[in-house]
Fold this protein.
Amino acid sequence: MPQDIPNKSRVRIEAEAICDGFVAGGAARFETDILLQAEVLLDLYGEDIRARAYVTTDPERGEMMLRPDFTVPVVQYHMEGDGLPASYTYFGEVFRKQEDYPDRRSEYMQVGYEEFGGSNAAVSDAGVFGQFSDVLAPLGLRAATGDIGILTAMVRGLATTEDRRVALMRHIWQPTRFTALVKRFAGQTPVPPSRAALLASDVPLQDAGVMIGLRSEREIETRIAALRADAAEPPLSAEIVDLIAAVLSVSETCPNALEHLRDIAVDMPGLLPALDRFEARCDAMARRGVDVESLPFEASYGRTSMEYYDGFVFGFYSEARPDLPPVATGGRYDALTRRLGQGREIPAVGGVIRPDLVLDLGGLP
Amino acid sequence: MTIKLGVPSKGRLMEKTFGWFGARGVTLSRTGSEREYAGAVDGVDGVDLVLLSAGEIPRELSAGRIHLGVTGNDLIQEKLVQWDQKVEPLAPLGFGHANLIVAVPNCWVDVDTLDDLDGAAAAFRARHGFRMRIATKYHRLVRDYLRRGGVADYQLVDSQGATEGTVKNLTAEAIADITSTGETLRANHLKILDEPPVLESQATLFRSRRAEVTEQERADLRALIDRLAV
């Protein structure tokens, strides 16, 4: 059974109040449709989003999706404009299927704040996090932070082939698959017999039989050539595998995490630019009044549920109500603007608050 | 009121279900004309036979409109979210065996595992500009299976029949479907991935956890379950 829905008008009033706070800070109000073109969202998030969002069909416009969040529409809106730095705030219903958690709400309000075009990433990250932290302070929530940029820097810096780096990069948001790939590239998993037979054969396509389907013989040959090239590559060293595991398991306060990662970077210098950005953000946060000394940092935070974030990520959780989803989440998503911007890219960072959960926790004064 | 037992209304599945109950002293039969969907239960008291399409039995169990039902666990798991909270499997019936599998063209000599499928899907998307299409009617089960298998860059396209033909007809690159012998797959130049199936299915007797029962019905249900020794 769905949990009791708190009075919708109270949620709306709470949402408006939070939104007004962002407007007072200089953000412009943003509104968008509830019915969105499904195609863009499916291409971005992949087929998995069908398990989380409601897809319906329009006889004329094809597949439509009930707004699962505001991020894509607000990015599209900003990128159609003059491209000057701007910040937006919005509130409205979003819709999520809850197959795994039927007790959670499938229709709820989000209040968002998004900042585009900030020239200093550290200052923008700290500013957005600081605003969310200030707004939510009365609720006494636990903050979680991470940085996907450190993970991408780690992959980019690996001394291996470009194909392997691309494969790892593609699965950064799927931890299990990522780890499986690392093990395979390190030669720690046995080669499946089918693969061994394929590589051993001089004429692999001999028994292919009838060629059917859109994937051509040429494409099959290209992949076989890539597999052969990869098999000839030396495996990732055990040392590198350990370093990757060490990076992924960092979980301590920001200053300790930074120090720990700098130790790892002695053997993994590719991390350094990302760690400099992490340090700059910590400094900017301290200047913004955030208690960085005790702020938690987890290197793997945001890898499972925040697929479009590619830099700083954060969330706010209720310690008293661990059954609740996060009250707020956010982060940096420059890569999303690149995918939607047809060649253009704009620095972007933002987040959302759930006013219904804020009310569940007693509301803001 | 009576206990309602839902059984597939047609074909071999119905005959074998009748046979399974018959072997346990409960005689199920169709009554009236051959085209009329009415049935009778002999050998126990207070049980009514409801003849339904196998595909509707999960919904009827979940809604509590029937107390017991025979259908494949593939249909139960595809159609019911958190199925184990809605129905309880009482006994596998030992027939109607079929596996839900993922199959790709035989000519894809480079694809035998989910790992291969993911690699091929990434290259396919880069080459063709759209996500590799997998035709199926089992959307939830297949999506969950591929997610757990770490496959990205694919899309499911709906196919309610003749799914094995979609690859040749260029409306899909791969398929996910129920197969028992694999003959139709071979005839259509497809091969099953060398992985555990998405699901191993067979005809199963389910009890609804949602159907309400009076005291009399509870006793009748108990008597029937005792008779069936499940």
User: Anything to note?
Assistant: The two ends of chain A are 31 Å apart (CA to CA). The longest helix of chain A spans residues 8-24.
